[in-house]
Every structure is written in C-alpha cells, then in structure tokens.
Amino acid sequence: xxxxxxxxxxxxxxxxxxxxxxxxxxxxxxxxxxxxxxxxxxxxxxxxxxxxxxxxxxxxxxxxxxxxxxxxxxxxxxxxxxxxxxxxxxxxxxxxxxxxxxxxxxxxxxxxxxxxxxxxxxxxxxxxxxxxxxxxxxxxxxxxxxxxxxxxxxxxxxxxxxxxxxxxxxxxxxxxxxxxxxxxxxxxxxxxxxxxxxxxxxxxx
Length: 205
Known about the structure:
Ferritin, 0% strand, mainly alpha
C-alpha cells in the first residue's frame, strides 16, 4: 500500500506548457452541426450561415474602413469626422460580434481571419494611402449601401424560412445601424457654405 501512495502521477499531468500543438479541425468551415434544439432544419441553418458569413465579412471590412478613415481624415472637418468615424467603428465592431455569434449559434463556423475576410468581402478595397474627405465619405456610403441591401435580402429570406432570430438580427441590428450611420455620413456631403449664406449673398447683390 505504501508503494501505491508513493507512486508517480500519470505522465500526462504536468505543469509544463505544451507548445506548437496542431490537429485537424473539429468542424470544417461551411458546415453546420447536424442536430441542434433550435427547431430549424440543417439545410436552413446551412443557408443562413452562408449568408451571414458574407454579411460578416462585409461588416468586418466596413468596420476596418471606418478605422482607416478615423486615422487618416484631414482638413477643416477633421475633429468632428475623427470622432464620428470612431463612433461608427465601435458600433460596427458590436455588429461583427453579434453576427459571428449568430453563425455559431446556428451550428456554423464564423469567418474570422483577415486574409479570409479579404477574399470574401464584396466591398471595394481602398488604397493604402490617405484620400480626400469626400472620397472617404463616398467609400463609406458605397459600403453601407451594399450591406443595407444584403440585410434586407437576408431578412426576407430568414422570414420565408422561419428563422426569426436571423430576421430580427438583420432588421433590428444590422439594417437599422447601417441606415443611421449612412444618414450621418451622407449629410457631410451636402454642399453648404460655411461662412456666408448663399441666399443672403444674392439678396445683397
């Protein structure tokens, strides 16, 4: 009995970290787990996760575009746009997490890495250099338009297939956030005088 008490613990128990581990994926990208207690059939969940991953890739790209604009904006409107772009970046970051969690909830695998996102997104890739403010704003609006269209289509499809959770996400989270942000951005492209009103100038003449 004393020998048993003095015996060494199993070799697999160790305080030494095990580095450089690799193994096969436990679930492949583009698949969903066969059975979940969601009352949604596997083909529906597979279609939804595919659409959601496209939306996720585009939302991640828009998020990063806002951060690029936040860092690189210049000119008389620097201060207000610097703050606005960062605010929108934060809101898009929240959407990224919400969409990714919905994909995982449905039994799928959410896209995650930058190189995969770059290969998947439908949004136009901006140059590395700094662009003028009107161009930055136009790029953001073009991106919003794509995502707004996607979210409307996704909401309609989810409603048709009975996926109420995805329908709610597409409308309440993605669509409403992007509509509001697009409004804030588009108002900065209205050509208005800053110092003297045009009508007053005309009346003075």
